[in-house]
Structures are given as C-alpha cells and as structure tokens.
Amino acid sequence: MKPIQVGLLGIGTVGSGVFNVLQRNQDEISRRAGRGIEITMVADLDVERARSVVGAGVQVVNDARAVIANPEIDIVIELIGGYGIAKQLVMEAIAAGKHVVTANKALLAVHGSEIFAAASAKGVMVAFEAAVAGGIPIIKALREGLTANRIQWIAGIINGTTNFILSEMRDKGLDFDVALKDAQRLGYAEADPTFDIEGVDAAHKVTIMSAIAFGIPVQFDKAYVEGITQLGAADIKYAEQLGYRIKLLGITKRTDKGVELRVHPSLVPAKRLIANVEGAMNAVLVQGDAVGATLYYGKGAGSEPTASAVIADLVDITRLHTADPHHRVPHLAFQSHTLQDAMGTLPVLPMSEVVTSYYLRLRVADQAGVLARVTGILADAGISIDAMLQREADEVGGEGSTQTDLIILTHDTREGTMNEAIAQLQQLPTELAPITRNRKDELN
User: Fold this and answer.
1) Distance between CA atoms of 145 and 84, rounded to whole angstroms?
2) Residue 367: other Cβ atoms inside 10 A
3) Confidence band of 394 (pLDDT split at 50, 70, 90)
4) Residues with Cβ within 8 Å of residue 121, at least 6 apart in sequence
5) What is the DSSP letter of 34?
6) pLDDT at 157 over 90
7) Alpha carbon of 52 to those of 46, 59, 180, 310: distances in Å?
8) Residue 349's pLDDT band (cuts 50, 70, 90)
9) What is the largest CA-CA distance in the chain?
10) Closest-CA residue to 64 (of 54, 49, 52, 79)
11) Using CA atoms, how far apart are residues 21 and 25, in angstroms rounded to an integer?
C-alpha cells in the first residue's frame, strides 16, 4: 500500500525529533500502522536549516500554505505554536480536508471547541497527544483506556520548568529568583519564562484534560491560574517539616456543584508518589471510580519524547484514515452533541467556591495573646485547624528577635471563607507582614 503522505509545518526542536524518530523506526512504525508514513514536504522559514535536517529526498518550502495546498498530503503536523498564524493554518488544513496533528496546547485550550467542531464537520481528525505532558500518553489514557470510568479528579505536575525550580529550591534551600536563574543557565527555563512560572502553560494542559475527563467544552478562560513566583524557601522548608512537599499542580475535579479547574502551588503529602517527582519530569494522577488511582510518569518535553507522542498520533490517523468518521474516537472522548448539555450541568466553578485545605504562614509579634486572637478569627469563620507549627523567635529573626512565624494547616474550607478570614487576620496589629497562603491537596 502507498505510504501516507505527511506535511510538516515547523522543523525546530520537536519537528527535527519527529523526522529523525520516524526515519529511525520506520519499519516498526509501518508494521504497527499497516502502511508506511512518510514526511514528504516541510515548511520552515529557515529553508537551509530545514534542508540540513531532512536531506535531499524531502521538498522544503518557506510557505506553510503550499503544504496545505498539496493534494498529495494527507496529514499536516503543526509545530509552529502560539494562537495566531498556527490557528489560521490549522483551520485552513481542516478546510482542505487534511487531518491535523498538533502539539499546540495553547491553541487547543483557547480555540479547541472551534477547531474540533470544524474538524467534525469536515470529517477529519485533529490529534494532540503531544500537547499535554510530552511523551506521556495521558490523552490516549483519558480518551480510551479509562473510558469505562467516571473520572473523579486529575492532578498533574505538567510543567517541567516549574518542577525543576521547586526541586532546586527544596534540595538546595534556594530562593525562587536564584533557582530560576539556575534553570535558565541549564536550559530548563526560557529567557522569558512567564508562561511557565506564572502557571499559564500548566493551565492550558489541565484545561484540555478537564474537557476530556468530564465531557465539557475547553474553557481556559474559566481556569484559576497562580504560579510559583511568590513561593519562598521558608515555605518549602516548613512544608517539609510538616510532612509535605510543594508542587505546582494542575487540578480538575468533579463536584456536586460543578468542575474545579485550577493551577497553583499545592502542599502534597511527602508519602504520595507524585510528591516525589523531581527535576523536569512530569506526572499525572487520575482517579476513576472503577480503576481507582492511576499514575502516568515520564518526560514532559524534549525533542524525541514529544516526537514519540506526535508519531503515535500519526499512526492512529493512518489506521483510521479510511474509517467512517462517526466511528472514530471523539476528539474530547464524549460524543460532540453531548458537550453542550454537560456545560449546563457541569459549570466550571469560580475559585471562591472551591473547597480545599490550606497552609498559612503568619509573621507575627512574639507576644502573649497572639495565638488566641488568630485561632479565634479562624474559629469564628468555621475554619478548623489540622496542625500548627510555631518557630522560635531567634530562629526566625536572629538573637533578640521580637517576631516569629506561625504556620497553620487547616481542614477543608471554602476559598471565599478563607479569603475573608485572611483579610481579618491581616488587620491584626500583631501581624507584621503579608500572610502567605498556599493550598493543600491530600490526593487520596
């Protein structure tokens, strides 16, 4: 059978990995797909560099639309990134009847509903395994492997840059700014790391997973997003003393009131496997009603790990290329006509309505009565204390210090209630600095 023809838009780090892995493992991939898969056309603005990667047997152009217009091309791989030209090219490829493979989580998190609707109307597939957690096959697990389950919640370390920084802060006692500079020097963080350290990248990914897990449209604009820039080495140390590690988690959870969709630093019990994921590695924990907890671990970025996911999508499309579109796995796992219904019955909750437990650090005057006033405000708000740690004043401020740190872990409470209580605590005359608040997720 004639090999399926693939056009590649963008041959940077991931694109080069896709081409090289496909070439290296062609025999194995063909045996699995049932026919050959060949990249026969590449578009990249740096034509000479692209030619140095693919050699003489592949047509290289500087115009992505020339790839889309080629009637011989069956599948278009989009590896350009971003919301702008990438969206235009994906929509044009769909309109031209091409299947699309993309690693563009930002594009799908913001415009996924429009893209999937267009693909369904045209009878083509949009595959995106590489958009979430690099080489970890979490999309396939959620869409197919766990399809018998009512997914209850997902919690993921899905940004390697922030996990590397947090690991460095914990292992070496570094402050955030120092750990970030180290991450940039070692190539784990971009020159402009904003999307990573502010939690946006993780929010894109958990938005996609949430849609697949619960059968709701992608709704990135409703996600709560908080990064790691305000974390201090002291909080990581105190969390460790209390038996927890701080991780930037993407969390989505089904509740009676709706769906939680949030990204923020969380205290996770040190005994949990996911709490021990270190460096730039990723991990996703999925809780299903039938299967229980399942954990997916691996490299979340990099040339060949991401290429592994892209090529898996190529194989899936090749197998289903001639299948009746109505018999393919839906883009978001659930039949498309049910998504709108789910949106009405499963709204994304505002953060103020989310119920979780908390870590509070208060820098207070070291004097009698402070603890009673603090616990009184929490009790009046109906917030129950789980654990408490008070440091010696000398340990916090040096010999002769008149201030100390009070660390409190709470039981579950509504975020809005906690916000009100923190506002009252902050007004106490013995409160000497802005209160640090982190959330705590037991993941059990």
Assistant:
1) 33
2) 11
3) low
4) none
5) S
6) yes
7) 10, 12, 34, 21
8) very high
9) 83
10) 79
11) 6
CA separation (Å) from 442 to 27, 164, 410, 422? 45, 22, 12, 22
Instruction: Please work out, in degrees rounded to the nearest 5, the angle formed at the alpha carbon of residue 204 by the alpha carbons of 39 and 105.
Output: 5
When computed from its CA atoms, the radius of gyration of the chain, rounded to whole angstroms, is: 24
Taken in order of first residue, the domains within the chain and their CATH numbers are: 4-135+304-338 (3.40.50.720), 138-300+344-351 (3.30.360.10), 356-440 (3.30.70.260)
Please say if the pLDDT value at position 399 is more than 70.
no
57/40 Cα distance (integer angstroms): 8
pLDDT, tens digit (0-9, with 9 covering 90-100), for 283-313: 999 999 999 999 999 999 999 999 999 999 9
Q: How is residue 307 written in tokens?
A: 């290429």
Between CA 412 and CA 401 the distance in angstroms is 33
Instruction: Centre a 10 Å sphere on the Cβ of residue 167 and count the other Cβ atoms it contains.
Output: 20
Q: How far is C-alpha 350 from the geometric centre of its chain's CA atoms?
A: 19
The pTM (predicted TM-score) of the whole model is 0.94
The per-residue pLDDT for 335 is 80
DSSP-H helix ranges across 194-302: 194-197, 200-214, 233-241
CA 178-273-17 angle, 5° bins: 65
Q: Six-digit token pair at 409?
A: 């872990």
Residue 336's pLDDT band (boundaries 50, 70, 90)? confident
| Share in percent of the chain as helix, strand, coil (round to 5) | 45, 25, 30
In one-letter notation, the amino acid at residue 121 is A
Q: What pLDDT was estimated at residue 391?
A: 75
Residue 444 pLDDT class (50, 70, 90 cuts): confident
Beta strands 59-61 and 37-43: pairing type?
parallel
Strands (E), 192-311: 224-225, 244-254, 259-269, 281-288, 292-299
Amino acid occupying residue 245: R
Unique residue bearing structure tokens 């969206």: 87
Percent of the chain with pLDDT over 90: 86
- Which residues are catalytically annotated? 205
d(CA 392, CA 406): 10
d(Cα 152, Cα 130) in Å, to the nearest integer? 23
